[in-house]
Amino acid sequence: MMNILVTGGSGFVGGYVFRYFQEKGYSVKNFDVQGDESDNDFIKGSILDSEALVHAVMEYDISVIFHFAGFANINKVRASPRECINLNILGTTNVLEASRLKGNTAVILASSVYVHSKHGHLYTTSKVAAERILDNYSSLYNIDSNIVRLGTVYGERSRHEDVISIFAKKISNKESISINGDGEQTRNFIHGEDVAKACEKIIINKVFGEVLIVSSELPTSINQIASHFKDIDPNIDIVKDKKSYREDDYEGDVGQVGDTYQKLNWLPKITIKEGIKRLISYHQGQ
């Protein structure tokens, strides 16, 4: 039986992956600093604790690690640069060390399409470094691995800090929505459930040694997102603040998404419109 470990399985994206595997009946454990301690599949631990990681991987005879734990909020890097570096670089190294010591344990690293950004950013640097370390470990120790570069993930269980979630919450509260800049900034959005299904395809089809881009194929602008909300509720008020601009805003091509669709035999199923409707219903039910 394949035994799976999800680091960060109590978090946003890792949570979608862990719960999906759990609901599908896989032998899966959630390794995280916090979580439901009544759940027999939860292991309390930090990726900065190398001994705890090695113990978990050895004790449960883990054959695949989906590494989602790390510093995930790009907007908070400026305030916590050292934490970002420790979690994303040293934490990834600890995961790879556990794999090396155990042997025959694949590592799937959750990275970001931000590595394609034209702007330099500490978050981007930490992700690029983690990818390089994974490549080096894979070559030196013959570890099966993949780099999974995620688009802008959203969903009902998110931190609600992405633009779709922010708009959905405001509309649910009958508030106006605000667009920073000209609204032509784009993202390649992907729902958390689609990420989880892509991860399952990796192990079903035994796809390793790849850089996979898990996102929508086409980018969506903030103006297009606002238009989708307007279609749902024509009475919403949209305010544009053209003077505002995020210095570290994402720019750049996410890469050959179609190659990933072919390699995994997978396509995202949840459209932006469906995802928006689900988020509005979620916030209205809170």
Total domain count: 1
Order of strands in the sheet with most strands: 3-2-1-4-5-6-11
* Head-to-tail CA distance between termini: 39 Å
The percent of residues in helical segments reads: 40-55%
Q: How would a crystallographer describe the biggest sheet?
A: 7 strands, parallel
By DSSP (H or I, 4+ residues per run), the number of helices equals 9
Beta-strand percent range: 15-25%
Overview of this protein structure:
This protein is of the alpha/beta class and 286 residues long. It has a single domain (3-284), classed as NAD(P)-binding Rossmann-like Domain (Rossmann fold), CATH 3.40.50. The chain has 9 helices and 13 strands. It has helices spanning 12-23, 50-59, 81-102, 122-141, 163-172, 192-204, 222-232, 257-264, 272-284; strands at residues 3-7, 27-32, 42-44, 64-67, 106-112, 145-150, 152-154, 177-180, 186-187, 189-191, 210-214, 220-221, 238-241. It has a 7-stranded parallel beta sheet with strand order 3-2-1-4-5-6-11, sandwiched between helices. It has a two-stranded parallel sheet with strand order 7-10. A two-stranded parallel ribbon has the order 8-13. Helix 4 (122-141) links the parallel strand 5 (106-112) and strand 6 (145-150). It starts with a strand and ends with a helix.
